[in-house]
Write a structure and sequence with these properties.
Radius of gyration: 20 Å
CATH superfamily: Aldolase class I
CATH architecture: Alpha-Beta Barrel
Helix content: 40-55%
Shape: globular
Number of strands: 12
Length: 335
């Protein structure tokens, strides 16, 4: 039939589908989380995150090198300290697990970009993201502590500081502290839009960061709000954030798009532990094809507007992308 639209022409073969693909995913757009614990040659499997473990700094560096060999562009370090206190002072201990891991990784794999998460929840005895007063988390008293941690990580060699605490004004406080310390080139990736989500459970198990009382709804974002997310992102950019993040990912695709359309800096999306756990659990029961589901969900985040993806399936994604590239690369070489 003359004039009939035949969209199937561009879907007929893998090569044609690749040629017409609108949204692409590359390993260098991936950021892989690593949980770092004290010790040497320590590997503690995390039951709620199958395939992941708490790693001592030496093994974290080995893991980072393997991820880099797969083409992954960045790692994001979270610390599990040997002890906790009310202020979370382990967060700025220069001999803590994260600074040690940073030094190992930057020495062994200098081309890999190292992100350091900045928050107090893993380090406080009460599990909240800031110090407490009689009414709850004291926002302003927390800011200099976050800045101390940021400078400690920058001094250890971190390329990127990633504050995830959701305290008001923390980007400005961290930027000022970094600049005073001579770290004017250190990047800040702000968890600008972090929702009070039900999808953080496996992470809190891995990091030991569940609040001992109450919850984080007083400082993390309320899930029904989108316009507020844009305000938060714009405020953090104005304070000095070089890149902003939306977390979680899949439940907030509309938020990623709204933020992408309003800010002029790169946008990251965090496919969080609960999203990973759902995929893994369904695959374990034979209900979904895990490799295809991994690719489809991460492409959805890219399609929504995310420039970078933080995900627990970074390793598997990078390996799958490398396998998928082989036929195209071979065909190109034969032309």
């Amino acid at each position: 039939m003359a004039g009939m639209h035949r969209g199937r022409r561009l879907r007929r073969t893998p090569a044609l589908r690749a040629m017409a693909r609108e949204t692409r995913l590359s390993p260098d757009q991936l950021v892989a989380p690593i949980f770092v614990c004290p010790g040497v040659r320590v590997r503690e499997p995390i039951a709620s995150l199958p395939g992941h473990a708490r790693l001592s700094p030496d093994l974290a560096a080995r893991e980072a090198a393997e991820l880099a060999r797969l083409g992954i562009g960045s790692v994001l370090l979270f610390g599990i300290p040997s002890g906790k206190d009310a202020e979370g002072s382990g967060a700025w201990d220069p001999e803590g697990p994260v600074p040690q891991a940073i030094r190992h990784i930057t020495h062994d794999t200098p081309d890999l970009t190292v992100w350091a998460d900045v928050c107090l929840c893993e380090y406080t005895s009460h599990g909240h993201c800031g110090v407490l007063d009689e009414t709850g988390v004291d926002n302003d008293a927390t800011l200099p502590l976050l800045a101390n941690a940021a400078v400690t990580y920058a001094r250890a060699g971190a390329d990127v500081i990633a504050p995830s605490d959701m305290m008001d004004g923390r980007v400005a406080a961290i930027r000022a502290a970094l600049d005073r310390g001579g770290f004017t080139q250190t990047v800040i990736v702000s968890y600008a839009v972090k929702y009070a989500s039900a999808f953080y459970g496996p992470f809190r198990d891995a990091a030991g960061s569940t609040p001992q009382s109450g919850d984080r709804r007083g400082y993390q974002m309320d899930p029904p709000n989108v316009r507020e997310a844009v305000r938060e992102a714009l405020a953090d950019v104005a304070e000095g954030a070089d890149l902003v993040m939306v977390k979680p990912g899949l439940p907030y695709l509309d938020v990623i798009r709204a933020v992408r359309e309003r800010v002029d800096v790169p946008v990251a999306a965090y496919q969080v532990s609960g999203e990973f756990a759902m995929l893994q659990a369904a695959a374990d029961r034979g209900w979904i094809d895990l490799p295809r589901a991994m690719m489809e969900t991460t492409i959805a985040l890219r399609r929504a507007g995310a420039d970078l993806l933080i995900t627990n399936i970074a390793r598997e994604l990078a390996a799958a992308l490398e396998r998928a590239a082989r036929p195209a690369a071979m065909a190109e070489a034969l032309r």
